[in-house]
Amino acid sequence: MTAAGNPSERGPRLAGPSQQAPAEELIDAGFAWEIADAPLLHHGLNLADLAHVLDLRSRELIPRHAAADLVSVLLEAHSTDAGDFPYEAASGEVYNSRERHFVARIGDSAGWLHAGRPRREAARVALRLLLRSQTARLIEAGAEFALVASSVAADHAETFMGDQTYLQQAQPSTFGHYLLGFVPPSLRDGERFSAALHQVNTSPGGAGCVNGSRLLDDRNTIAADLGFDGVIAHTRDAMWQTDVFIDLLATSASMIANQAKLAEDLEIWASQEFDYVDLAGPFTRASVLMPQKRNPYSLSIIRGASGVLIGRMSGFLAVVKSPSARSDNLIFAYGEIPRALDFTARVSALTTGVVRTLDVNAPRMWSELERGFTQATDLAEYVMVAAGIDYRTAYHVVGRVVREASRRELSGLDITAEMLDDAAEELCGRRLLLEPEALAEALDPRRIVATRRATGGASPPEVRSMAEEFTATAVELRTRAVEEQQRYARAEEMLLAQAAELVAAP
Predict the structure, then answer these.
(1) Are 352 and 482 in a shared domain?
(2) For residue 172, which phi and psi values (nearest 5 degrees)?
(3) pLDDT single digits (tens) 95-142
(4) Helix (H) or strand (E) holding 240
(5) How much is the average pLDDT of 319-330?
(6) Rounded to the nearest 10 degrees, how much is the dihedral formed by the CA atoms of 315, 317, 322, 323?
(7) Is 323 a domain residue?
């Protein structure tokens, strides 16, 4: 057998750098895909490269003139808009494209940028720099929604309505209590984002491909220079982990799913058939054919966004199920995750604007409450206590009265003691002999709501108290997020100052 035909006599496949130009198909389907994400990573890549060069220079692993050349060209790149930087798919993916530009500018000095670091590490650092800022802004966005919803809820603590399940009137409540129910999930998502932020804001710098580099025996310098909280402890995990990104996508999907539920309800309630609420004009779009229609377009965006984010999360999960230490785990993350988080922030801001400007039709809500039978549960409980019968029997008595009243086109407010006596006599052979005045109080929706004084109830004082508590929590979340962003900005300023100082030194 010839050497060419004997696998044992061939060299290892694809060993060493390839000297061949990449296939056009690879450029079109692969490198072009990654280059499209370059504008997202550009800022972080410049910071990651600067921190790496400064660390190498502090260890005296790189000559001063080469470090100065590199830092100079990196500062130039930092001041260049991503759209004006010569990222070219024909030059390879983002890192290689940058390297070719740096080599063209400063020659062999650019080669020192490789020392102790694989190609993908810079992108890993850049992604985290971007995601930490986005995550902090998402905490802000969720907190803002919680603040606005809490404020509007407090304003409507006495806007009475029949709360619904399955689009059927259930019990007397208020619009304030209803709306406030969307705030705790938002605050919990804020806490989830805060936990994810702590994980995101840890540095993979110095991790190498799987097991670090003999050149960098302390990874904390790069982490500190970039404003990270610390380093990811295990080097292999640092380069290839995906779970924190799943957390971010899942919480984004959760955040908008909560708001989409609200949007679903508001779209129904904004219809002519309900007429409970009306969206402010700037959040609607007129029909070009039907003059009478003004469509709640904003709500369609919010509802659809929930499905899009679920799809983004599912897509990422489908990619990262591959074996460990594979580039495909994260190649697609560089664009998909930042775009998903940015979309989440935009949609949350839209929901906040809708709620802030919402017009609530309190008279219409009250009239529907008056003509329904939302008092039925409270009436059954009153009958049980006042007449001394078990709840199941009271339930059947009230159910029979409600059916009769509905047949006669009466409302819950029209139910009388006589009607209850007749039903009770039929069902259990006795009259209830309820006091008309006490019965009237038991049927009054306002009085019913006032009895909901337990924690989380719909009584106006309890709604206002919850709104105040939720507001305080939202303010705390927002304050922490703002402080984190300010800390990141200070770290960046200090890094850039160190870089400028190195270039300026004689």
Answers:
(1) yes
(2) -65, 140
(3) 899 999 999 999 999 999 999 998 889 999 999 999 999 999 999 999
(4) helix 235-240
(5) 82
(6) 150
(7) yes
Residue 239 shares a structural domain with residue 319: yes
pLDDT in tens, 208-217: 888 888 888 8
Number of Cβ atoms within 10 Å of the Cβ of 200: 24
Does residue 473 fall inside a structural domain?
yes
pTM over 0.85: yes
CB atoms within 10 A of CB 61: 14
138 and 268 together in one domain: yes
291: in domain: yes
Kindly state whether residues 136 and 237 are assigned to the same domain.
Answer: yes
Condensed to tens digits (0 to 9), the pLDDT of residues 245-290 reads 999 999 999 999 999 999 999 999 999 899 999 999 999 887 766 7
| Angstrom distance (rounded) from CA 37 to CA 171 | 51
Residue 186's closest CA among 458, 477, 484?
477
| Angle formed at CA 434 by CA 433 and CA 436, multiple of 5 degrees | 125
CA angle 152, 153, 158 (to 5 degrees): 115
Cα separation of 309 and 315, whole Å?
A: 10
Give how many domains the chain has, as a whole number.
Answer: 3
Same domain, 323 and 261: yes
CA–CA gap between residue 336 and residue 316 (Å, rounded): 8
User: Dihedral of the CA atoms 81, 86, 87, 90 (nearest 10)?
Assistant: 170
Check: CB of residue 286 under 8 Å from CB of residue 293. Answer: yes
12 pLDDT band (50/70/90 cuts)? low
Distance of alpha carbon 145 from alpha carbon 153, whole angstroms: 12
Answer yes or no: do 176 and 63 share one domain: no
* Burial class of residue 246, CB neighbours in 10 A (0-12, 13-18, 19+): middle
Pair of tokens at residue 506: 């004689």
506: in domain: no
Predicted local confidence at residue 435, as pLDDT: 94
Please check whether residue 474 is in contact with residue 190, taking contact to mean a CB–CB distance below 8 angstroms: yes
DSSP code, position 158: T
Name the percent of the chain lying above pLDDT 90. 82
CATH number of the domain that residue 151 is part of: 1.20.200.10
Structural domain boundaries enclosing 42? 21-115
